[in-house]
Structure formats: structure tokens, C-alpha cells
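Milestone M4 deliverable, item 7.
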Amino acid sequence: MNKKELFEKAENVIDRRRQIAKTQAEDRRLEVYEKIPVIRKYERDLANDMVDITRLILEKKKDSSSMLYQIRDKNLQTQQKIKNELLINGYPEDYLDEKFTCKLCNDTGIYNGERCSCVYEIIKKIATDDFNKNTGIKLCDFNEFDTSYYSNTESTLGNITDRQHMANIYRFCYQYADTFKVNSPSIVMLGNTGLGKTLLSLAIAKKVLEKGYTVVYGSSQDYFTRIQNENFGKSKSNESTMDIIKEADLFILDDLGAEYETSFNSSIFYNIINTRLNFDKPIIVNTNLNLQEIRNRYEDRVLSRLMGQCKTLQFVGKDIRQLKNK
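Output delivered:
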């Protein structure tokens, strides 16, 4: 999707928001007219005041200033009467106002003579959704994570059992998603295949999306291939994968290490984490590699950024998929 298409889609969203706000306000007005008929009269008085003001401005009489002040005071009194009637009858005083989604531009898309920030937020969400729709990934719920599959007797990491350890990881991930902000910490999930890394990261993605943030999710092999094709002119798309990754509120890179081991892929990975961490934007990396394998494959500078600025979650236990099959 090119920039022109993105802006057109964003403008359509804003137009729909504005029309919905106006329609809902009109519905509330008709409701109030039926229950509090005097308000209809007050609003007619306000409309007549505007006609009088326009007439005075056009006539340019010498005493028009004093008359304008009189009309203004009368107008303010009428507005207050409407608010009082609404409150007396159990309505909020702003019940008849149009409730726009964006308080800056009132859903016009223009603020201070320029495109409003809401336009770019809509574009970011459209671009993210468009980018993610072809991944075929099914989001998960936290209640799908079952700690009973982890041993309550084995203690891989020492002081507590594997089940207790994984219950702690579950609670951390749930709290992370529940309190997510655009500057939330980054996470590295380490551990063998089938231990729940993908499930929990997809559960985080779902909850963060529900909170209204943008999330980009996919495998390292998919991302690195897209970026490589774009760099070498093999992609037919006008989208920039790197730009979408950098702009997303949360970026989740699944299955790091599954991609081809090349210097180009290593540089892509470093560029991604370096950019996001420098701008204090969270990234979640899932990998079956251990720390030494990450160092060997992506060099010390990558490991340093990951370990120095990310929360490390070490997944333990036996392959859950195999246990479920049994």
C-alpha cells in the first residue's frame, strides 16, 4: 500500500468518525427535544441570536458594538439555561455536544493549519494491520497457557520447581501486557522449542492490540527475507518493512535463529534492535538459541544490547507439544 492510499484510507476513517459523531449528537438532540421540549425553544433563540449578530455586522451601525454585547450576554444566558435543564433532568451538561474522537481537530484531520497527529496514528495502524494480515498468525489468550505441563518436582534453575518458575514468567508477561506503554521494557525469551515462548508473546500481542497500540509480529526468517528483497529490488511492494518495524508501538520477533546465517541478516538484526532500543521502543525477541549461540551468530555487540537493555526470561521444561500429543 503506497502513501497516497494510506492517506486516503486515513481520511475515510476520519470522515466516518465525524459523521458518526454528528449523527449520534443529532439522535441525542431529538431525544432531549422529546423529554425536555423547552430546550428546542432555547436552541431556536440561539439560532435567532446568530441571525441578529450577522445582520448587525453587515449593517455596520454606530451603536452595533453595544447591541452585540447585549446579544452575547443574552446568548450566554440561554446556553446556561440549556445546561441547567439538562442537569435537572439527569443529563450531563454537555449531552448535546458532538463527541469527536480527536479533541485536537474535532475529526477534521487538520490542526493549526496542518495534518493532525491523529491522521498519522490512523496511518500507522492501517499500515501495521496491512503488514500483519498476510502472516497467517493466530493470536492467543493468556488462559491457553497451562502450567500443569511443567514439572512440579524438577528444578532446572535451582531454587524453585520448573512449574513455579514458569508460573512466575506467566505472571510477568500478563502484567507486562496489562500495563503496556510505548516505553515498556524490551524482553528476550530464551529456551528450547515447545516451551510456550510463542504462545505468551502472541497473548501479549493480543492484549496490547486490544489496548489500542500497534503491534508487528512475525518470524525472523520472514522479516529478514522481506528486508533483503526490498534492499535488492526484488520486492514488488512499495512498503518499507524497516519503517513499519521502527514505527510500531511493539515489535515481536519470533524464532530468532531460524533465518539463514548470513552477515546481511546479522546486520539487519542489529539495526532493528539498535534503532528500537535507542528510541526506547520495546521489542520482544523469542529464540531457541542460548546466550553463547547468540554471541557466536550475531557478535558481542548484539548480545550486549540484548542482555544490557532487555528483561531476560529463561523458559524451562519439556516440549509441551510432545506432551500434549502423548
